[in-house]
Amino acid sequence: MAATTDQIGRDLDDELHFISWNMNGLRTFNMSEVLTKRVGTMNCSILAIQETKLTRNMLEASQACVDDYSSYFSFSKNRSGYSGVANYCHTTATPIRAEEGIAGSNFQPAYKVDLPIAVGNYPDIGEDQSADAKYGDNDGRTVITQHVVIEPDGSEKLLNVINVYCPRLRDDPSDPVNNRQFKLNFHNFLTERARNMVKSGQFVVIMGDLNVSHKLEDQSDATDPKQFVHHEFRQWLDHLLSKDEESGVCFVDTFRSKHPDRPGSFTCWNTRLNARQNNYGARIDYILVDSWFSKYLRDAQVHQDIMGSDHCPISATFHSIRFKANTFIPRTASKFYAQFCHRQPKLNDLFKPSDVQAARTTAIQNEIDRKKRILKQSSLASFLVKKPKLEEPNLTGPENDQNSITKSTPNDGSSGFIKEVNAESVSAWRLLFKPPDTPTCTGHGEKCSLRTVSKEGVNVGRQFWVCPRGVGKPGDKNASCNFFKWVNSKAS
Ligand SMILES: [Zn+2]
């Protein structure tokens, strides 16, 4: 942590800084860099991340053992490379307990109460809900860390940080949890667990990707207000944020409580459609706190300037309250996983390219191989068919590849035919490297972006041109004009 006071003299030791970020795959990140640079200026006490898309054996030391932080992961045991959440807790915020899952199905019923390692306050699970509880708890959707905080009067209280990745709203038949009842049950377990904690006198922070936008202003493409408010998952969030008559428990949306009217505060965009460019997105990431803890809320923010995922980080800061020091790190911390214990750096590690570099090298090699294959076919064709004269391209292929063509062509200097073929091959080669002429879009007159159809079907692999701008609200002149044109279309 940085200095104990800031420029205006606020005591930073008496501040709690929570950050939540759906990182959409942890493999491309070095967590030390994330915590010291990307979110480093926010003085992070606890970073809750979602969609690590890792299984336990994929976790690397750079993600599991970060200086000044202990981290607590939950991986999906149902599906590999799917969901996954983790809490990174600064040494000033070391938890006393950490637990996976929301329904406690791995602890119930035998250890329902007072197991020293369990966070407790589990929901009642009906017979018909037990399969969903088990599935949800093993799906890498929730991790809870429990901390001790000290209030201004010196009294100590338990604070539970529930990091959650709620099931998606989208109907996707290939998604095994595309089941309305599973989602409703998951939401209800979360509500009941969080309320039970508050009822037993504990503070609760729920942060993560709830996969639902709350109000009309939280979603760009909401067109039908009636349909919008009647969505049952949205009604669940409404229910969580309204006062429970029986217990008086109520949760507060930290961002909206500080910035009730701030428009365009989206946390997630469709990056495939470049929608972040025009801020055409949705606010589906939240830091919610119980109303008693909310009296310490100083501010909450959406950090749209921090890139790296299709979501941006969000944060909430609390004043006049501090974590109680705890030097005993729970054994469930990732640094205690067998694969990281007694780990000596191997010489190989120093020379091993990272997965990202390896993937990039493979992609480049594949592209070179593909172009060589096309050239081979093209060279053969040039022997058999008299081609129309090729226009001289401006762009040249890589120097080395041209040399390899010249060398591989038999050239005894006796035949003009061979020389001609040679020249044609080189031109054909050059053409292969020349990108197709870029059209301009009709709406803006700007050079288009080249895309490739990735969806399986008759057009898979086919290239097309689109307006270079990202999608946006209909009528937004700064957004895409929807220009579309196939590359190599017969009409052109
Ligand atoms: Zn355009």
From TrEMBL:
Q: Does the keyword DNA damage apply?
A: yes
Q: What is written in the cofactor note of this entry?
A: Probably binds two magnesium or manganese ions per subunit.
Q: Which cofactor does it need?
A: Mg(2+); Mn(2+)
The record's section on Pfam families has: Exo_endo_phos, Zn_ribbon_GRF
Q: Where is this site: Interaction with DNA substrate?
A: H311
The GO terms describing molecular function are:
DNA-(apurinic or apyrimidinic site) endonuclease activity; double-stranded DNA 3'-5' DNA exonuclease activity; lyase activity; phosphoric diester hydrolase activity; zinc ion binding
Keyword field contains DNA damage? yes
Q: Where is the composition biased (Polar residues)?
A: 397-414
Say which enzyme class the record assigns. Answer: hydrolase
What GO cellular component is one of the record's annotations?
A: nucleus
GO terms for biological process? Answer: base-excision repair
Q: Which keywords label this protein?
A: DNA damage, DNA repair, Hydrolase, Lyase, Magnesium, Manganese, Metal-binding, Nucleus, Zinc, Zinc-finger
Which residues participate directly in catalysis? Y165, D209, H311
Name the chemical reaction catalysed here: Exonucleolytic cleavage in the 3'- to 5'-direction to yield nucleoside 5'-phosphates
* Marked site positions, Transition state stabilizer: N211
Q: Name the residues that bind Mg(2+).
A: N22, E51, D209, N211, D310, H311
> What InterPro entries does the record point to?
AP_endonuc_1, Endo/exonu/phosph_ase_sf, Endo/exonuclease/phosphatase, Znf_GRF
Q: Which family does it belong to?
A: Belongs to the DNA repair enzymes AP/ExoA family.
* Protein's recorded name: DNA-(apurinic or apyrimidinic site) endonuclease
